[in-house]
Design a protein that fits this description.
With 177 residues, this protein is α+β, with helices and mostly antiparallel strands. 34% of the residues lie in helices and 14% in strands.
């Protein structure tokens, strides 16, 4: 088995990318209420702050802060994925391995995480989250994508509503080039 090296910093702040197994599907936006319910239920049992969150049809990006003394983001993602899967009918095709392990065929098994290092790193990753729907061609302006905490941040005065209309965000943020 692979030995994954993860940074466990109690109370830390992380950027995540989580993908559907079948990237041609649009389950995350089609079933957005089930995803919201899964996140809310998980936050009740394992609290965390959501600094940024954007849901695209086949993947999502998030920035979380965990409570002081807590570094267990893996249990939170496991619960979110399991709760979301349980809310959906079991009609996806399964590989022999997934069937033998009694797994669903909805999510990629793991996720990508990056420990936020400083304010510039934080700002870059928040901007990446919010610009991602434009990058993938879903909308031409950030404010037009409904499945994003960008709108919350506009209401809080952290971003102007027209932010990202013509801005390009560059860098490597956990997606394959």
């Amino acid at each position: 088995m692979s030995n994954y090296r993860r940074a466990f910093v109690p109370g830390g702040c992380w950027f995540f990318t989580v993908n559907l197994l079948d990237r041609r599907k649009s389950l995350l936006t089609d079933e957005i209420e089930s995803l919201r319910d899964a996140v809310a239920a998980t936050r009740r049992s394992y609290p965390f702050e959501i600094d940024a969150f954007v849901v695209l049809p086949d993947h999502l990006h998030a920035i979380w802060k965990l409570p002081p003394g807590d570094a267990n983001f893996s249990v939170r993602w496991r619960l979110i994925k399991a709760r979301f899967a349980k809310a959906l009918p079991a009609n996806e095709r399964l590989s022999a391995v997934r069937a033998a392990r009694n797994e669903r065929g909805i999510w990629q098994r793991r996720f990508w995480e990056h420990l936020i290092r400083d304010e510039a790193d934080y700002a870059r990753h928040v901007e990446y989250c919010y610009y991602n729907p434009v990058k993938h061609g879903h909308v031409s302006k950030v404010c037009d994508w409904p499945y994003s905490s960008f709108h919350r941040d506009v209401r809080a005065g952290l971003f102007p509503e027209d932010w990202g209309g013509d801005k390009k965000v560059v860098g490597e943020f956990g997606e394959r080039v």
